[in-house]
Amino acid sequence: MKIFNFLLSLTVSLALIFVLHKGIGDLPPLGRLLDPYGGFWQNSGNDDGMQQESYELDGLGGEVSVLYDSLMVPHIIAQNDEDLYYIQGYITARHRLWQMDLQTRAAAGKLSEVLGEKTIEFDRRQRRIGMVRAAEKSLTAMMADPVSAMVVKQYTAGINAYISELKYKNYPLEYKLMNFYPEPWTELKSALLLKYMANMLSGYENDLEYTNALKIFGEDAMAVLYPQYYPNQQPIVPTGTIFEGNVILPENENIIADVKGISSVITDKPDPNNGSNNWAVAGSRTANGKPILCNDPHLGLNLPALWFQVQLTAPGINCYGVSLPGAPCIIIGFNDSIAWGVTNSERDVRDWYNIKFKDDNRSEYSYDNNWMPTKKVVEKIKVKGHKALHDTIVFTHLGPIVFDRNFELKDKPQHQRVDLALKWQAMEPSNELMTLYKLNRGKNYTDYEKALVHFECPAQNFVFASASGDIAIWNQGRYPVRAMGHGKYLLDGSTSATAWKHYIPQSENPHIVNPQRGYVSSANQHPTDQTYPYYYSGVFEYFRNRRINNLLDSLQGVTASDMMRMQNDKYNMTAAEMLPVMLRAMQNVKLDPARGRVLRDLNQWNYMNDAQQVAPVYFEAWWDAFNSITWDEYQGQPYPLTLPSTATTLALALADSSNIFFDVKHTAAREGRSEVIIMAFTQAMDSLDNWQRSTGKPLTWQYYSGLRVTHLARLEAFSYTDLPSGGNKHIVNAARNTHGPSWRMIVELTTPVRAWGVYPGGQSGNPGSPYYANMLQKWVAGEYYNLVFIHADNRNEKSMISTQNFKAKSK
Questions:
Q1: Of the ranges 284-298, 493-507, 598-612, which one carries the lowest mean pLDDT score?
Q2: How many other CB atoms are there within 10 angstroms of residue 190's CB atom?
């Protein structure tokens, strides 16, 4: 019904436009779009390319079978690797081509070619950061290895085999609505997608904001505002673990850039809500004596879905999991012998350098008392409906100049000219594809350990479990060795003291195997305690990881059902630790009956952020107001800053009720924590009254949290809003707004292996398909599907709804 209403509305609206064969502005040629034989109507049926047919394709060496189960998951059975990845590319393109196309355009800074002026600045940033250059370096590394070269070549050939078959009537609907066409796929585009994920997962840091805060608040305050370590932190590698190795530390020089404050610099950061949970429980703690592994990566919730489920079977491989449409292999998954999953490391691997040029020509810059030459590259940005733009990018040996006098906010004055170069680990050659290739075929811990050495950026926490009984976790990435404090602030680019000279050895990356406690876990927290011999910085989680560990500590005889409840846990630890303090401050405050009921509801709350409860709304609004009043020093500042974290605010509130930051700037009195709590309560209740009046929605967490899964092109008719999932950012079920668990997977390493999974969407990229969002409601309800894992000699034909056979085209 949703798609029918959209199509009806679209037809009526477009029929009012009398020019049917020429596009107007961003609109497509309407005659072609409305053509009942080739236009958008062709996308409203149930043809998802699962017909019981045989196909002949150029480029295949043997026969390949593709079996589809009831969720439209393709189970690809090939006789060799070359055909396996060829068909993986072909099948993925058949269901997700437009999504793959749009995401690679975004990564490459080419959205303006199809979307017009509104994406020019985004494209400039992507090009200045150097996404294409980074992908080219990684592709060179992939092509240098004959195995990864074969994989990416065959995957690309399969995608192009599908594209070559397309006619306009078969184009995905979005091509018709946005009036552009598929281009041939290249190996570089697959490399770009991997860099797109690297940017999403390793592109968040606060170097510029911390530098501004240092200038405003001073060094002593920085230890309070942005502490290196939180109290009661539970690191990934358990506290007390002994680290050994040859530690090479640079001298701790004062090399922070000498800047007074930067007001005109903007950075295009990934969403700070990106995160994940994973854990593995040893057989000694499970009901059946076999390990259980769980993973739920928290990313943007979009349609078509971020992930594409697939099973890959050929001699030497039988693997199931989720892939990234446009990149080969399986990223998170399992086989008969092992299972693995990932969470983001959150360690900072990007540094910003202030470059001092000789003159405005920017042909030379100062470095160790010498003038170093720059390299300049002119980027041509094509813009739909307008003339192309040209942007000159200046390169130093530290990296490209991303922000300069030509890239400033127009509505703010320039207080100080800066030229900022970016050094980022993702810009170094690496071959993460080999990690995936080897994990897909892994049999034991040794295989897992050997696979990880190829994975350099984005740094990830790889959790592992095997049918033979091992569990493990590695904080895996390639990390520069830094002096204390280096990389937290904007660095002086005129001295080699700031350069990356060494990397932490692979063997000294934080990891743990078969710990005595019987589980391993990560949820974006600190990887180690403070005894780790290498300095690192980042933006780390403080709440989800402690809740996960508390639950795992309390469980014995663990089952898959226990793990499902854990992944959907809605316990609000922030509220559990802070709300009692807030309620005590209100004990002697006189309130009207309505607001008195609010306090009674909060007193009776079980700290669960359930969708239909109102108490989570009261707490969230109160906590937000408390943060706003506490950190009023940040308001009106001329320079970009980042607020202290939830963990910092909580630690300050629990430890020091009279801290100077609780004092409100615009009042004559000296406020402490209690006064701020009382002021925040009134402010919060007023804001909720305004919210209800303006939205007309019920005052429950479902509507206040605004959980939604939106179409990549922000087409409302293809999106779902106000989903009743419950949860929040710092809760195990980290669902709120446009972010949340993008894939929930639970694997039990029995014989045969058993697994369950779900994600908020469906396998099809076609909004007119019944498989477009068919898993969404189960995901919202916290339910799972049994994952159908077949074997080449036991295909479970009864569980399949369609079978396709592919073979080489006759000569």
A1: 493-507
A2: 27
User: Between the CA of residue 664 and those of 632, 634, 676, what are the distances in Å?
Assistant: 7, 12, 8
Residue from 226, 125, 220, 218 nearest 642 by CA = 226
User: What are the C-alpha distances in Å from 598 to residues 675, 683, 684, 699, 702?
Assistant: 19, 14, 11, 12, 18
**Parallel, antiparallel, or unpaired for β 420-424 and 74-77?**
unpaired
Kindly provide the residue ranges of all beta strands, DSSP E only, lying in 397-495, ordered along the sequence: 399-403, 420-424, 460-466, 471-476, 491-492
**What local confidence, expressed as pLDDT, does residue 265 receive?**
66
CA neighbor of 319 nearest in space, from 746, 792, 800, 798: 792
Q: What's the rounded Cα separation, in Å, for the pair 715 and 717? A: 6
Residue 719 reports pLDDT greater than 90 = yes
Tokens representing 118 are 């509104």
Annotate 100-146 with three-state secondary structure. Answer: HHHHHHHHHCCCHHHHCHHHHHHHHHHHHHCHHHHHHHHHHHHHHCH
Q: How far apart are CA 790 and CA 802, in angstroms?
A: 14
Q: Do 367 and 561 meet the contact criterion of CB atoms below 8 Å apart?
A: no
Distance CA 318, CA 76 (A): 10
Whether the pLDDT of residue 10 is over 60: the answer is no
With a cut of 50, say whether residue 789 has pLDDT above it.
Answer: yes
Q: Check residue 33 and give its pLDDT.
A: 43
**pLDDT tens digits for range 43-66:** 555 567 777 788 899 999 999 999
- Band (250; pLDDT cuts 50, 70, 90): low
Whole-angstrom Cα distance, residue 84 to residue 155? 9
How far apart, in Å, are the Cα atoms of 68 and each of 123, 162, 414, 719?
38, 18, 59, 26
| Tens of pLDDT, residues 643-695 | 999 999 999 999 989 999 999 998 999 999 999 999 999 999 999 999 999 99
Dihedral sign of CA atoms 137, 139, 143, 146 in order = positive
Rounded CA gap, 807 and 804, in Å? 10
pLDDT of 30 > 80? The answer is no
User: What angle, 0 to 180 degrees and rounded to 10, lies between the N-to-C axes of helices 573-585 and 646-655?
Assistant: 40
- 171 CB-side CA count, 13 A: 21
33-43 b/e (C-beta count within 10 Å ≥ 16 → b)? bbbeebbbbbb
Q: Where are the beta strands (DSSP E) in 514-647?
A: 519-522
Burial class (CB in 10 A: 0-12, 13-18, 19+), 623: buried
Average pLDDT, the chain: 90
Rounded distance, CA 11 to CA 30, Å?
Answer: 10
* Angstrom distance (rounded) from CA 350 to CA 204: 8
Percentages (nearest 5) of helix, strand, coil residues in the chain: 35, 20, 45
Maximum CA extent, the chain = 89
Write the CB contacts of 8 (distance below 8 Å, at least 6 apart in sequence): none
For residue 16, name the pLDDT band (cuts at 50, 70, 90): very low
Tokens describing residue 216 = 């405003």
pLDDT computed for residue 245 by the predictor: 62
Q: What is the DSSP letter of 696?
A: -
| pLDDT at residue 263 in the model | 67
Q: Give me the pLDDT at residue 796, please.
A: 66
In this prediction the pTM is 0.92
Among 231, 232, 235, 211, CA closest to 222: 211
758 vs 340: CA distance, rounded Å: 16
